[in-house]
Amino acid sequence: MKAVSIEEAVAMIPSGATVMVGGFMGVGTPERLLDEMVRQHKTGLSLISNDAATPGKGVGKLFEASLVSRLTATHIGLNPKAQQQMLANQIAVDLVPQGTFVERIRAGGCGLGGVLTPTGVGTLVAEGKRQIEVDGKPFLLETALRAQFALVHAFLADYLGNLAYALTSRNFNPIMAMAADTVIVTAEHIVPVGVIAPDHVVTPAPLVDYLIANG
Amino acid sequence: MDPQIVIARRVARELKSGDLVNLGIGIPTLVANYVPADLKVFFQSENGLIGTGPIPEQGMAHPTLTDAGGRPISALPGASVFDSAMSFGLIRGGHVDVTVLGGLQVDAHGHLANWMIPGKMVPGMGGAMDLVTGAKRVIVAMQHAAKGKSKIVKQCNLPLTSARQVDLVVTDMAVIGFPEGRATLLETAPGVSVGEVLAVTEAELVVPDNVAEMKL
């Protein structure tokens, strides 16, 4: 793990990159990294994020600045800007059931090619997908999802990069921290090694590439 | 009584002590207000919490304690938090005893459509498809009709949420179940006759000899 400034971290992300962003309706989202993405005007992003948040919050900022060209998400109904851009074909949107979304990312981070899920069988979601029977029950083959960058927000990070999360801001963060080539983290508090007890570490330090220095 | 409150009160009677329950957005959210205090029900919020409590008082909200809509909530003693893979493992894995969801249409076979209106409203399915697929019991809580049009239809013409049949539909006029795979009128709301229900229901309902009145 290397500690870097927010400007340096975002400078590493090229326009057109595939980026996973943690958070659920803007809760547990690395807001400062998104502000810097907007400031450095990283365009043509393929965004993988649970939702489109709301205007001005979380990944919602990326839609306001028209930085997204492709979105994989589970729900975008609370961001009119994202809806508008989807209906105007400015962004290609792939809507995925939430349980499938998280398992595809988990698979991507765990070296699996994909998962078999019963969710979506017999619905529009099944279109174009392989259906596989296991013990007489139908499942859809859903392939793994990975990204070049994961932008993660933690409650605590220690000097080594061990992470702990707070309440409902955990959500997709620890899953995404395993599924990207480069993992960039912001934390509410950066604390000495040992403050987070081994039992309470959720994301182990070796998964974190860059920690944004606070201050 | 307000139609939404009729629905919420009747659904609340379906919950048992020890149940792990997931409530959808809208009318389902109201159900929590009508669960008797002596009933120990665990409410799950799919963004990663079991043990959700009421909306906190003014000034007591915490930015990392929210429901699936991102709104502030509280956590009850004994609450637990977890990531989204665990949350949907609970849902898809059959650990959630009851889910209560809103609906756009339910058809005579018990199929539910509640996630999109093609060309009009495409918000995404969020957790709905996983909930209907994986929860032990699926209860739909919705108004019987919208703008004079029955939401209990012969066949859904909106995209289905799951191929799985729901277990119970509770509306402001009736309770409908699906024994033997056919929509059956189980109860009517206080002051509503069987004839009145049938008159505003598009789907053909099986009507047993005795249709009880909803207890609220």
Q: Mind sketching the topology for me?
A:
The complex is a heterodimer of chains A (215) and B (216).
Chain A: E1 2-4, H1 6-11, E2 18-21, H2 31-39, E3 45-48, H3 60-64, E4 68-73, H4 80-87, E5 92-95, H5 98-109, E6 114-117, E7 131-134, E8 137-143, E9 147-158, E10 163-164, H6 173-176, E11 180-191, E12 210-212
Parallel strand pairs in A: 1-12, 2-3, 2-9, 3-4, 4-5, 9-11, 11-12
Antiparallel strand pairs in A: 6-8, 7-8, 9-10
Chain B: H1 3-12, E1 20-23, H2 27-30, E2 42-45, E3 49-53, E4 74-81, H3 84-92, E5 98-101, E6 105-107, E7 112-113, H4 128-134, E8 137-141, E9 145-146, E10 149-150, E11 152-153, E12 168-170, E13 174-177, E14 184-188, H5 194-199, E15 212-213
Parallel strand pairs in B: 1-2, 1-5, 5-8, 6-11, 8-12, 14-15
Antiparallel strand pairs in B: 2-3, 3-4, 6-7, 9-10, 12-13, 13-14
Task: Describe the model.
Chain B: This is CoA transferase subunit B. Chain B: Belongs to the 3-oxoacid CoA-transferase subunit B family. Chain B: Keywords: Transferase. Chain B: One of its GO terms (molecular function) is CoA-transferase activity. The complex is a heterodimer of chains A (215) and B (216). Chain A has one domain (2-96, 144-212): Glutaconate Coenzyme A-transferase (3-Layer(aba) Sandwich). Chain A has six helices and twelve strands. Chain A has helices at residues 6-11, 31-39, 60-64, 80-87, 98-109, 173-176; strands at 2-4, 18-21, 45-48, 68-73, 92-95, 114-117, 131-134, 137-143, 147-158, 163-164, 180-191, 210-212. In chain A, the strands form two sheets. In chain A, strands 1, 2, 3, 4, 5, 9, 10, 11 and 12 form a nine-stranded mixed sheet that branches. Chain B has 216 residues and is of the alpha/beta class. Chain B has helices at residues 3-12, 27-30, 84-92, 128-134, 194-199; strands at residues 20-23, 42-45, 49-53, 74-81, 98-101, 105-107, 112-113, 137-141, 145-146, 149-150, 152-153, 168-170, 174-177, 184-188, 212-213. In chain B, strand 9 and strand 10 (149-150) form a beta hairpin. Chain B starts with a helix and ends with a strand. The model of chain B has no long low-confidence stretch (mean pLDDT 95). The A-B interface holds A 24-28, 50-51, 53-54, 73-78, 83, 86-87, 95, 97-100, 102-103, 106, 117-125, 155, 166-175, 202 and B 45-49, 62-66, 68-70, 75, 81-85, 87-88, 91-92, 121-130, 133-134, 159-163.
